Structure prediction request, 521 residues.
Amino acid sequence: MASRSFPSPVPDPDTEAFWQAAKDGTFMIGSCRNCGEKHYYPRSVCPHCGSDDVTLVASSGTGEIYSWSVLRRADPPYAIAYVTLDDGPTMMTNIVDCDLDALAIGQRVELVFSPTEDEDGPPVPTFRPTAP
Amino acid sequence: MSINGKAYVAGVYEHPTRKAVDKSLAQLHAESALGALADAGLGKNDIDGYFCAGDAPGLGALSMADYLGLKLRHIDTTECGGSSYILHVGHAAEAIALGKCSVALITLAGRPRAEGMATGTAPRNYGSTSPDVAFEFPFGPTVVNMYAMCANRHMYEYGTTSEQLAWIKVAASHHAQHNPDAMLKKVVTVEEVVNSPMISDPLHRLDCCVISDGGGAIIVTSPEVARSLERPLVRVRGAGEAPKHQMGGAVDLTYSGARWSGAMAFEEAGVKPADMKYVSIYDSFTITVLMQLEDLGFCEKGQGGRLVSDGNLISGVGSLPFNTDGGGLCNNHPANRGGLTKVVEAVRQLRGEAHPAVQVANCDLALAHGTGGSLGTRHGAATVILERE
Prediction:
C-alpha cells in the first residue's frame, strides 16, 4: 500500500502570507476589519460584506467534523472532511492519524500540519481526533 | 418581461455513441448539431444563434462556428458545468424574445472514456489560478467523495438511508431496460445497490452514474419558426439559474441551488411542482436526485428519502416519473455533463416519443433540472419548465 502524500499548494500574492504562517507553524483564517466576520479560504475581499479591509488572524485550530467520507477506492484510502472551526468557518481538509472506520459527524478534532511533496512546499492544515 | 411562451424547443438529439474512440470532439458536436437540426426539420444555415460551454473544443463557440460554417448574430458560452445546457435553453429563450436570434443551437460533446479519464475517483486540478485550489486540491477532493459528504450530512440531519438512495437507482434501471442505447440495461434491486462495493462512504458503486462518451444538441426557436415546422410544439414556460458555493466558510451541504433556480422557474411558468407530469433530474449520484427533488419543492426538506422510495419514481408505478431514458445512472452521461440529455428526454416525453413502456400518459408539463460543478463545493443550478401545446 502506498503512503498518503499531499500535493504542495502553490502560493500566490493573495495567499503568500497564509502559507508563510503555515511554514512558521501558525494556522490563520481570514478576518474582516469592517464587518468582523471570519472567512475561509483567505482572500483579498471579504465574501460577507465586500470590504477589502481584510487581514489574517490566528485560529484556535480546534473544531468538529461537519461531514466526512473515506475514499475506499484510493490507495491508500483517505478521509476527506469539512471541519467547522470553533472560530466560525467550515473548511475542507483531511482527517489524519485516525481510525478510518471510527469517524463521525460532530467528532472533536484539532489541527495538525501535514508536510507536502515539494521540499520547499508549505505544509497543509489537516486535523486529527482530539484525545478524549 | 418573461420568457414564458416566447420560445419553443423545436429539435433535440442524443448521440447514440457511448464510446467514441473513432470520432473527434468537434465531430461529436457537429453530428449532434446535425441530428437536432434533422429532428426539427431545419438546415444548418437556419441557425443564427449558437450556445456552448466548457466542453467545446478550442475557442469554444468560435471554433465550432468555424468548423460548422455558421453565420451567427448571437453567441453565448456561459459555462456552468453540466447544468450549462439547461441554462442555455433559458438564455436562448431570452435572446429569441429580444429578437437577437430566431434559431438557437445548443451543443454538448465529450469523450472521457476514449481518453481514459478517471472521472469520479481522481482529484481534478482546475489550475493554480483557481483561488480555491491551494486550499482544496491537496486534500484529494474527487467528484465522488464530495457528493458522498453531502449524502453523509443529509443522513445525519434527516435520517436518510442508503436503502432510500438505492430506490433512485432502482427506478432508473427499470427505465433503462427499455432503452437500447443505455449502458446499463439490467434491472437492479435495493439489495444489489446497497451491497455493491463502497466507493466513498456512504456511496456505493451503484449509487454512481455511468461514464460515457457522446453528446447531444437542442434547437430553440421563435414561435413563428416553431409553428412553421412539422414537429409537436414544446413551449418554454419558465427558467431559473443560480450558483451556490461555500459563502466564505458558511458551508451547508444539505441543500442545492435548486432551491433558488426552481423557485424562479416555477414563478415564471406560473405553475407548481405538483403540476409536473414528468421530471428530468440530474443524477450524477443518487444523492444528487434526492437533494434536488427536495429543493425544487417536490416534498418538504428532509423528506426526499420517503419521496423516492417504493418505486415512486418509476413511470407507470409511482406518482413522480423521472429520467425515463435511464438517466446518467444507467443510460448516458456524455462529457461527464448531464444537463443536455435531461432536456432531450423531457422533450421526448412531451411529444409522446418516449419508449412506450415508460411514456407518461397525457404528458403536457415537464421539468428539467441540472447541477453543474459539485454539490460539495460550488455549483450552478439550472431549471427549465416546458409545456406541450
In short: The two ends of chain A are 30 Å apart (CA to CA). Chain A has one helix and eight strands. Chain A touches chain B through 46 residues (CB under 8 Å).
